[in-house]
Write a structure and sequence with these properties.
There is one protein chain. 24% of the residues are buried. The protein has a two-stranded antiparallel ribbon. By secondary structure, it is mainly alpha-helical. It has a single domain, classed as BFD-like [2Fe-2S]-binding domain (Arc Repressor Mutant, subunit A, Orthogonal Bundle), CATH 1.10.10. A hairpin with a 4-residue loop joins β1 and β2. The structure holds FE2/S2 (inorganic) cluster (FES).
Length: 74
């Protein structure tokens, strides 16, 4: 499903960028341009990031260092 129709960016792509460390809509925009044209998708991107798409965000929320090694996926 497309999150950003201006640039044809899918929900899956946003999640991949989030897993690679893009924790904010701005970082997602740097990674794939999503949100940099009409801006209509920014809320959807925020919602995706807010749903735990970014594992590093959880570390930050817990007060941990953002660039710490992520625990291995079980
Ligand atoms: S839908 Fe993403 S910038 Fe327009």
């Amino acid at each position: 499903m497309f999150v950003c129709s201006c640039f044809g960016v899918t929900e899956e792509q946003v999640k991949e960028h989030a897993e690679a460390g893009a924790c904010t809509p701005r970082q997602i925009a740097s990674a794939c341009k999503a949100g940099t044209d009409c801006g209509g998708c920014v809320k959807r991107i925020q919602a995706l990031l807010g749903r735990g798409a970014c594992p590093r965000r959880r570390l930050i929320d817990q007060g941990g260092p953002a660039l710490a090694e992520l625990p291995e996926a079980a």
